[in-house]
């Protein structure tokens, strides 16, 4: 670890500590004068009214330990562990993301290598790219009639465009002198694609894949809130309906951690294929 990395890590810990201190101070119990209604409630044996404010750090820690102690429990349709909910979401994301790779990377290669094909398909790409993935959900539910597969389709449609555009750009941006050498050596087109163009375009392709995985993980949470059933998005929505803000915040934290790990994995792969002169 370099000195700069160490300083960055210490600064991150300082920011985290400051955030936790602010959270702790903001959730400290406040001494309030007892209202007449509370006294009346006590006389009736109902006890004082509880405050439903923002959870404290202690409450968050207790809830987090409870979830992490048994993350894979299954007590029915609306009561599953956090690991099961995340597993359903990751399965949908993985399926849609893999389909997007199989579709976008080969098509991006063809678009990058053929100016004619690029001009023919570019209007369609520019029209479809800005459409919100969630706008496709009603159409997917109507045609597919399965909420889980509809979620996979939404992940596919939101993951395609960054990969397609970055793949085409990476192919177009391959250095001309490398292609000239391949032409001089009379390298066959298929071998040129895999031995010259693909390694040169790989960092740009992985950039598109990295953008896509972030968008896919973002979209699946919103999609599961709409379709329900299982998944971390449904868990958040269900806990909000139960007015359990502590579980909602814990789920948000899990979403952020899983998203960071997915981005880190693609980032490491991108670094592995990047040539540094």
Properties at a glance:
single chain, 277 residues, mainly alpha, MetI-like fold, 11 helices, 77% helix
Topology, please?
Layout: H1 3-26, H2 36-43, H3 57-69, H4 82-113, H5 115-128, H6 137-144, H7 147-172, H8 176-184, H9 189-227, H10 232-241, H11 245-273
Helix pairs in contact: 3-11, 4-5, 4-7, 4-9, 4-10, 6-7, 7-9, 9-10, 9-11, 10-11
What does this molecule look like?
The chain has helices at 3-26, 36-43, 57-69, 82-113, 115-128, 137-144, 147-172, 176-184, 189-227, 232-241, 245-273. The protein is mainly α and 277 residues long. It has one domain: Orthogonal Bundle (MetI-like fold), CATH 1.10.3720.10. Helix 3 (57-69) packs across helix 11 (245-273), helix 7 runs antiparallel to helix 9 and helix 9 (189-227) packs parallel to helix 10 (232-241). It starts with a helix and ends with a helix.
Summarize the structure in short.
The chain has a single domain (80-273), classed as MetI-like fold. Helix content is 77%, strand content 0%. The protein has helices at residues 3-26, 36-43, 57-69, 82-113, 115-128, 137-144, 147-172, 176-184, 189-227, 232-241, 245-273.
Terminal Cα span: 22 Å
CATH secondary-structure class: Mainly Alpha
Tally of structural domains: 1
Poorly predicted runs are 33-38, 44-51
Q: Could you describe the largest sheet, including whether it forms a barrel?
A: none
- Structural category is mainly alpha
Order of helices and strands: HHHHHHHHHHH
Mean of residue pLDDT values = 85
CATH fold assignment: MetI-like fold
Could you tell me the number of beta strands?
0
Q: Measured on Cα atoms, how large is the radius of gyration?
A: 25 Å
Range of helix content: over 70%
CATH architecture: Orthogonal Bundle
